[in-house]
Amino acid sequence: MDILTKKVKGAEDILPADSYKWQFVEDLMREEALNSGFREIRTPVFEHTVLFNRSVGETTDVVQKEMYTFDTKGGESITLRPEGTAGAARAYLEHAIYSDGLPVKVFYQLTCYRYEKAQAGRQREFHQFGMETYGAADAKADAEMICAANSIFERLGLEDIRLELNSIGCKDCRKDYTNALKAYFSDNKEKLCDTCLSRLERNPMRILDCKNESCKQVAANAPVVLDYICPDCSAHFEKVKTFLDAADVEYTVNPTIVRGLDYYTRTVFEFVTDSIGAQGTVCGGGRYDGLIEELGGQPTPALGFAMGIERLMLVMKAQGIELPEPEKCDIYIAPLGDAAEKKAFELLWELRRSSFIAETDIVGRGLRAQMKYANKIGAKYSMVIGDDDLNAGTAKLKNMETGETVDVPLDENFTEAFSDITLQSEKGMLMDLLGSDNMDILRDIIGKTNDGE
Ligand code: HAM
Q1: pLDDT bucket at 437, cuts 50 / 70 / 90
Q2: Labelling 197: which of 147, 268, 388, 414 has CA 20 to 30 A away?
């Protein structure tokens, strides 16, 4: 196939026939975040490479194998963001957002770039929705984060997504664990890939999320971090669980979750499903109490999560969840002749200014073809305007479903007349829906919207 008409591997188009599903999901996520007091942050698609090296971590798969990094003409090393946490933290510090008072709560919807092996649910360009909180050390903040993610899944009607929870402790209690891992992996050196051999000294925890099969097998029997966490971290973890219980959010503790990025401390969590194959982690997050300091700020507890929107879409498809389709065209206006075309265009924009979805011909079709098109786009009403109609000052508005027609004035009263007609028809539909048992309630509603008529 010609390269000019072929997308780059690992990237996907979101086509007009599907974009309404994305809009629905993104709107719902935005609403969830706003309702919990989070405000949107938008950061650039690229950052200085060193930001990701420092935050995500030099020995992670993301930094070692997956980043889209390039030198600009000015000689700067730039990287397309592989995730949203680092950029948001950079912006938090750069603009001193903390000076407005803590906690600071932000959310984002963005594209991310990772040079991974593309497969269902794993892309090289993908979309994340994420939430981050800065300046909250309390376990309630962990629970708030987890509950917000959970609420999004619930509101989308998703089932079979389980929450898995772990604690990977703080910098201090991590030392003993790192030593235990070093000892274990040193005894199994011959089974590790070259990248993991280099991680053995620098950061043995990263061997635990290597995607290499042989490394995975060794990692399966490695010591687990939960056995090494200090009393403070343990108490924090217990409190997180208590708040999740209070909010009636179910979870299982999975001591093997360590997450693939270096900045995490204490609570880590993943929402996982079996309904979309191998790439079943739809959301991941946790605390990162050391990151802000690592980037040059004051010590600031922080935490967050991000969910992969493509994976969510796959789950919704697998579970047969239908989303409301966008509103169809309210009215199609078909003009015949030059003068009618002008009138149609004038009415079209009056209708649109009043928030109706109105369409007219823009490709020079004949009347029959126009009516066929009006049918195809599901127009609720159509109206043909010819010279006779212009002279008479009225035209026939046709209800495309019932075939009924009614005369409407082609003057400044047109939009109001159309508005009345659609309102009456909506009331009729409501009446059919409610049935005769609820006629009193209906009369009440109609009475109110109809000036007591
Ligand atoms: P992450 O686990 O690397 O965490 O990514 C979060 C989510 O993004 C994953 O659970 C998955 O749904 C989606 N995702 C990751 N890679 C891909 C891919 N190649 N194709 C499709 N979807 C993908 C983070 O990115 C952290 N920044 C999350 C976080 C925010 N932690 C604290 N705050």
Answers
A1: low
A2: 268
pLDDT in tens, 41-63: 999 999 999 999 999 999 999 99
Atom of ligand 1 nearest to the CA of 307: 7
Give the largest Cα separation in the chain, rounded: 95
H helices then E strands: how many in the chain? 16, 16
Binding site membership of 82 for ligand 1 (Cβ less than 6 Å)? no
Amino acid, res. 428 = G
* CA dist list (Å): 450 to 64, 407, 424: 67, 21, 10
- ∠ CA(428), CA(430), CA(433), 5° rounding? 115
Q: What number is the average pLDDT over the span 119-136?
A: 97
Q: Is 305 in the pocket of ligand 1 (CB under 6 A)?
A: yes
282 in ligand 1 pocket by Cβ < 6 Å? yes
Taken in order 192, 195, 196, 201, the sign of the CA dihedral is positive
Alpha helices in 203-331 (DSSP H): 213-219, 231-246, 291-294, 309-318
What average pLDDT does the structure give for the chain? 94
How many angstroms separate the first and last alpha carbons of the chain?
A: 65
Residue 348: CB within 6 Å of ligand 1? no
Among 113, 128, 281, 300, say which to mutate for ligand 1: greatest number of ligand atoms within 8 Å of CB.
128
Tell me how far the alpha carbon of residue 112 lies from the centroid of ligand 1, in angstroms.
9
Q: Which of 79, 88, 91, 92 is nearest to 52 (CA)?
A: 79
Instruction: Output the pLDDT for position 452.
Output: 43
Looking at ligand 1, which residue's alpha carbon is closest to its atom 1? 284
Locate 368 and state its tokens: 């029959």
Q: Taking the model in full, what pTM does it have? A: 0.92
CA of 61 to the centre of ligand 1 (A): 13
From 126, 287, 291, mutation site for ligand 1 pocket: most ligand atoms within 8 A of C-beta: 126
Band (438; pLDDT cuts 50, 70, 90): low
Is any ligand 1 atom within 6 A of the Cβ of residue 269? no
Q: Is there an atom of ligand 1 within 6 Å of 85 CB? A: yes
- Residue keyed to tokens 């690229």: 46
> Kind of pairing, strands 125-134 and 252-253?
unpaired
Pairwise CA distance, residues 349 & 358, whole Å: 8
Closest CA to 170 of 132, 137, 206: 137
